[in-house]
Design goal:
homotrimer; seven-stranded mixed beta sheet; globular
Chain lengths: 157, 157, 157
């Protein structure tokens, strides 16, 4: 498994992840994680302080799926979509079939009436399992640049 | 023609396309399509409903060039520019010298007085001809996330 | 040194540059340039007019470091961060261990209170030195799409 193949596979995983969220195929989202896993959305300040709980958290595919069900059923929020763009993807290290990968994002939010706004910016800090035919996330920590976002966050980032 | 060469060529075509639009070299824009071609800008809702006509449409290089001439001559709108950023580019399939490629975009609009705003977000659904020395679009469908955009759209996306 | 290796190295340099700025490790920013170098932030209109001085300028690592010191010490502005996303990176030519590379960017600005806005868009016009173990910038010209930005610009782009 050479460096280039890992880069391409990581790029594909991150592209598929973004597409899954932005195209509202949320039921497929948990399949991109291994079992158990760690998914955490946290503000920069709390992440820098070493806190391990954030505004969204899951430790298994079941917990990820619970999040999807609550979005589908509860309808507590005005319908909207995201559109992600991703900054340069950087493979920081590879060892024992695990890649540490950093990237960053800007996400626009599109409301049902078409109103579009800059919604969130931040970093993805990933640990990715390279052992299977398809790469999956062991851990995806979403570090938000802003602290202001919490109450608006329903769909995963 | 291997997988990597196709990825790099597709990346170059999409990069050149964006540069052509954003740097206002619109006269070169039709050269990025084969003859005949299909270029369509359509809202997500209309695309999902299977409609084949959108807010901008062309079936040949001549029609693309007409669009450029009308922008240059009519001056019906306040001068502005775009700046695109592209999300992960995904080659979905390759067969018979045609690649199906999906990507997505966020576009900022810069008015002549410098005012900058988030203008459009959406997806590119491309069929790309790989048979020539330079890749070209057989089809580029621009699916807009928002329905609100129509009357503001003059320059192609 | 083949085409692919250059593409990957250029991608890594641009990714590291963005990460250095956005994660506020500005003291490492000058190390990404050779000595002497040229760093220039200029508006599109002034760049098109052939002007060689812009809203930010440096001709050596020492001048880049002076910029960092003034940010650290003067505190003349309300604390904020950037978040960059980069459009397709295009290697335009390679000769004599120098690559000419164009890319473009959208930058969001995040204020200390969390308020996030679209801050700047434009192009990077780079000349990159490929001769060392790590690629470095011989020249990075940042061409801003808007003329409105000057007084707000403190952190390098």
């Amino acid at each position: 498994m050479d460096d280039l193949a890992i880069r391409l596979g990581v790029h594909d995983l991150i592209g598929a992840y973004v597409d899954c969220i932005d195209e509202d195929r949320l039921e497929s989202w948990p399949d991109m994680f291994v079992e158990p896993c760690r998914y955490l959305v946290i503000s920069r300040a709390n992440h820098a302080a070493g806190l391990r709980q954030g505004v969204m958290y899951a430790a298994s595919r079941g917990m990820l799926l619970d999040r999807v069900f609550s979005i589908r059923k509860a309808n507590l929020f005005e319908p909207h979509r995201y559109r992600h763009v991703i900054g340069p993807i950087r493979v920081k290290s590879v060892a024992d079939n695990v890649a540490v990968v950093h990237s960053h994002f800007i996400v626009a939010r599109i409301m049902q009436d078409g109103a579009t706004s800059l919604f969130a910016t931040g970093r993805y800090l990933d640990r990715i399992d390279l052992s299977g035919p398809t790469y999956r996330f062991l851990e995806r920590i979403v570090v938000l640049d802003s602290d202001k976002i919490d109450t608006l966050l329903a769909i995963p980032l």
